[in-house]
Write a structure and sequence with these properties.
This protein is an alpha+beta fold. It contains 14 helices and twelve strands.
Length: 469
């Protein structure tokens, strides 16, 4: 008796069956990731949320985690089929709906907690090798859930804040679809290549060509990831009396350099710059987790200084790094901008400061420790004050600048960078920054590391004005 006559699903073959099997398997990985990350973020809730909401958020997270466990069990107990893609929609709706409901509890559209929806949209799009149409529909579904819940039960909101949130949410959906288009094409291309290789396994030359095509596809995906990493960095601009110019020049791989320029709803102004050890996707992931943690902490805890934020970020990243099973660590400087000084905490490269009154550059060391090496910092991280007169310029940078090597093997070094800063510091910061990058590029032979530099110049008092977008 045939399978159809017995009521069993027919045996499927070809790319459709291969795709469904991948989607089914990776749905389990996405569910497992949610089971890990959803309760882990309760620690961030404890640091940033009002105490009266912690019990409610813990219940939300416990419920979501329990349902994800049931879904993971269902995935493992069933076989791949045409409908396996529905697991992705269920995970996105469950986790996205939970985060959206948390924004309702936090006041509605004005809550910055919506940023977790970006992680949900990107995670599903990055990990599930399904059709781009599903990436688009699942992303739209998450955004619509967020809108409907906050329209129905959210509080009063500001239109400009809603527009800002919608801009980044829809931009994330577009990026997720773009990644899905590229990835789906590569999955299908790999499958076709494997079919061809099986049919012509005696042809060694053809086999090598297919392997080269697979390698090119891998580097193409790495290039997409590098562009996403660069796109997340903020534009240069004017923050109060400070004019800031910053840029990262990535190396060939996805790197771990990070900087940020933050203006909180309470009017506080923050800078951050750091460098994750190593290169590749792991370093880029640690960098993105750092950016998310810092942004949440400075916005929800205005009473914290740089040292307090540093210690809190270290606690969050230690948990995540251990779960990743990686040995990454990170140098990091956190800077709070005042009218006439900088408050700095952390451990990174020395700060070069050009003094307008003397025309000289001084090197300022900051004592502290690295992120991700120890849970107990035991007072090792303290706030340091750096006075800045009008016209003074501070240069923050990563070691990709000073450790650039010439073709003969000579290192660029701190002294050359200080001399270069002295020559260009009187220029407008964007122009001065381009000149510094040009000098480093002209010196080195090949770029082996990300290069990040940030110029912070004290000007006259002014309202916030950001250039770019």
């Amino acid at each position: 008796m045939s399978a159809a006559a017995q009521g069993s699903p027919p045996v499927r073959s070809g790319f459709a069956a291969h795709r469904d099997a991948l989607v089914h398997a990776w749905s389990g990985h996405v569910a497992a990731l949610g089971i890990t990350m959803v309760p882990l973020f309760l620690f961030l809730d404890w640091l940033t949320m009002p105490p009266e909401l912690l019990g409610r958020f813990a219940w939300y997270r416990a419920t979501i985690t329990a349902v994800l466990c049931l879904q993971l069990l269902l995935i493992r107990k069933t076989r791949p089929r045409r409908q396996s893609f529905l697991h992705g929609y269920a995970i996105a709706a469950l986790v996205g709906g939970g985060i959206a409901w948390m924004t309702v509890d936090l006041g509605g559209f004005d809550s910055t907690y919506y940023s977790g929806l970006n992680l949900v949209i990107m995670c599903v799009a990055l990990l599930l090798p399904w059709r781009p149409m599903h990436a688009a529909l699942s992303g739209v579904m998450v955004v619509v859930i967020y809108i409907l819940l906050n329209v129905g039960w959210g509080g009063v909101y500001h239109v400009e804040t809603l527009v800002n949130h919608m801009y980044f949410l829809w931009a994330t959906v577009i990026v997720a679809v773009a990644i899905s288009v590229v990835k789906y094409g590569y999955v299908e291309k790999e499958f076709r290549a494997r079919e061809d290789l099986t049919r012509a396994n005696a042809d060694l030359d053809r086999s090598r060509q297919e392997l080269a095509a697979a390698r090119d596809a891998l580097w193409g995906e790495m290039e997409v990831a590098k562009r996403i990493q660069t796109a997340l960095l903020p534009p240069s601009g004017r923050v109060g009396p400070w004019e800031i110019a910053a840029r990262m020049q990535p190396a060939d791989e996805v790197g771990g350099d990070y900087y940020d320029i933050i203006q909180t709803p309470d009017g506080d102004r923050w800078l951050a710059i750091g460098d994750v050890s190593g290169h590749g996707v792991e370093s880029g992931l640690v960098m993105m987790m750092t950016q998310t943690s810092i942004l949440a902490l400075v916005q929800e805890n205005p009473q914290l200084g740089p040292a307090g934020v540093f210690r809190a970020v270290n606690g969050v990243l230690m948990e995540n790094i251990e779960r990743l099973g990686t040995g990454r660590y990170m140098t990091l400087n956190l800077v709070k901008l005042h009218e006439d000084r900088l408050t700095v905490a952390g451990k990174h490269q020395d700060i070069l400061v050009w003094r307008r009154a003397t025309g000289q550059v001084e090197s300022v060391s900051n004592d502290g420790c690295w992120i991700g090496l120890s849970r107990e910092l035991n007072g090792e991280v303290k706030d340091h004050e750096l006075a800045m007169s009008e016209g003074d310029v501070a240069l923050f940078y990563t070691d990709g600048a000073t450790e650039a090597m010439s073709p003969s093997g000579e290192m660029y070094g701190d002294e050359r960078l200080a001399s270069a800063l002295a020559r260009v510091a009187s220029r407008p910061p964007p122009e001065a920054l381009e000149a510094l990058f040009a000098e480093v590029s002209a010196f080195r032979g090949r770029q082996d590391d990300d290069v990040t530099m940030m110029l912070v110049a004290r000007r006259g008092s002014a309202a916030l004005r950001v250039v770019g977008g």
